[in-house]
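Sanity check

After download, print the first record. It should look like this:
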Amino acid sequence: MDRVPITREGYETLKKELQNLKTVERPANIKAIEVARAHGDLSENAEFDAAKDRQAFIEGRIGELGHKLAVADIIDPENLPKDRAVFGTRVVLENVENGESVEYQLVGPEESSIEHGRISVSSPLGKGILGKQPGDEISLQAPGGKRVYELVDIL
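Expected structure tokens:
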């Protein structure tokens, strides 16, 4: 079984979601099923069907999160080198074509969120950044054409 890199913050987020599903969502859904059953004929009971669908989702997500936590390999970015881009580091990139700068943190696939400035090390850009040093160029083929970035800084 392959280990999946994750930051401590990402691990804790998954753990909180799992805890919430087990202690809040699952019990609330069980009550919803009981209430729907009390309404009688289950064959035409939309509330019962919705509650059973929700139960299937909750149980599936609990299993998925349990697996993700089991294979998680927590990596502390503070203990990593700052001379090159590695998992957990924050980098500043500049688009060579238009001069736009962006800051990203390299994270595992479970934590990636472009809106929050976190990209997966398994994404094309993440793979391109890994191992680079300030001043290095990163070239990748995007759906809109070739993109070239310069790694400006490692934070």
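If your output differs, re-run the checksum step. Summary of this record's structure: The chain is about 40% helix and 25% strand.
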